[in-house]
Amino acid sequence: MTVAQRAFIVVIVSATLAVGGSEIYAPSLPHLVQEFGTTTNMVQWSMTLYIAGLSLTQLIYGPISDMFGRKGPMIFGMILFTLGAFLGSNSQTIESLLVARLIQGIGAGGPTGLWRSIVRDVYHGPALAKHASHLTLTISAILPIAPSLGGYLESTFGWKSVFIFMGIYGFFALLFLIFFFQETNHSLNPDRLTFQTTSKTYWSIAKHPVFMGGTLITSLVFGMKFASILVAPIFFIQSLGFTPIEFGWVTSLSVVTSYTLCGIINSQCVGRFGSKTMLKIGMVCPLIAGLFLGISYLIFGLQTPLLIISLFILYCGGALVFPNAFATAFSPLSKNIGYAGAFYGFMQTGGGAVLGGLISYLPDTSPLSLAGTLIVVSFLNFFIFHQLIAKTSQN
């Protein structure tokens, strides 16, 4: 097995870790409200804290990986993720569950923040956009298993089994990292890990308009997707009467069809039209999803087919935005890739934490809150694209 092939496996495992760690857990959210005798908002915070921990720690993992390589931080993060999963399975109170999820998120920050750097270590130029599309297509075939698997585990063995599964997954991923993964960073940065050096490097990256444009767009689209994950179990399970298994299958089929279809379209079209054009097409999808969801709810009320269509369109947007925003952001960069990957991951998952926390506190529990969020954030994305990417490309 070549270095590139091993790196590809590590990237797949790492990229599915963070999102899988949230989506496999989604079907259990309504049950945990009853289990711990708490509120829906408090249980939703177990998702938000996970994403917040994942987001913030990436800023630390990135510089360390530029100094000492990608492998060590990846292993350390996987150990914490696995530990947090087993702590979660033994939680007796909502407070202990929140702590366990935060530990999980801190651990997931390593693999999640560094897999993009590994891709950038191995691929360059046009190959970067091409392999980003291939990765999206491969990941799209794996991630949809998470909510349906979570639904089966929740219904058959209870919510603790979801954490046990995540712990086992993390343990075997850890073994692969230790014994099979070969270091991809061969240009270690000798600078000391000081606050001054780190902040200066991050600032130089943040000043790059194209990188920042792609990063912000990814952040907001991920935030919209994460917000939908938070509220979807409430709509399907509590309002429409779905079982956790049925909710898992609906979510899985929506994700797999949208990501597979758009992944194929993107891989075939990105070479002809370019990453920026495909990125713009992807940015339109959340706007359409928000308008369709809001208008259909006002006319027909909460209807299963209309809700599924809205989520499908939203997921199509993610399938097109994520690989093309990544390729757009990273193509101009030639150094400090670990920093850039960490900053990119921090912003992406940070968008999920912010929008997720926001939607948890919106007073309207109908789909109108989600619809309004999708519409407003979509217009913000178009403004960012015009100001940071389109204008820079013209100059």
Describe the overall structure.
This protein is mainly α and 395 residues long. The protein has one domain: Growth Hormone, Chain: A (Up-down Bundle). The chain is 85% helix and 0% strand. The protein has 15 helices and no strands. It has helices at 3-23, 29-36, 40-68, 71-89, 94-122, 126-142, 145-157, 160-179, 195-206, 209-239, 244-273, 275-300, 304-330, 337-361, 367-394. The chain starts with a helix and ends with a helix.
In short:
The chain is mostly helical and 395 residues long.
Which helices and strands appear, and what pairs or packs with what?
Blueprint: H1 3-23, H2 29-36, H3 40-68, H4 71-89, H5 94-122, H6 126-142, H7 145-157, H8 160-179, H9 195-206, H10 209-239, H11 244-273, H12 275-300, H13 304-330, H14 337-361, H15 367-394
Helix pairs in contact: 1-5, 1-6, 1-8, 2-3, 3-4, 3-5, 3-14, 4-5, 4-8, 5-14, 6-11, 6-13, 7-11, 10-13, 10-14, 10-15, 11-12, 11-13, 12-13, 12-15
